[in-house]
Give the backbone structure.
Amino acid sequence: MTAFDPKTFLSSITQRAGVYVMSGVDGSVLYIGKAKNLKSRLSSYFVTSGLSTKTRALVKRIADIKVTVVGTEIEALLLEQNLIKEHRPPYNVL
């Protein structure tokens, strides 16, 4: 498996609303989030400063990010909640 390249990944991400699922090398779900603007939100994980220790630890473990685009913020919220209940990712605080 090749290393996750945020720059390449972010170049193809839409500015629409959606849900993202961050996974580790073993395929396990690490974190699930939602965004009004996927490109802006996902870009915020890959800045060089200002991230919490927990977020920096998460980012180091990312091997893949899957994105689902939805029509509205409400749809994103509902999908995010359902996926969190299903996967119980270690970096999501319930």
User: Anything to note?
Assistant: Residues 73-87 form the longest helix (15 residues).
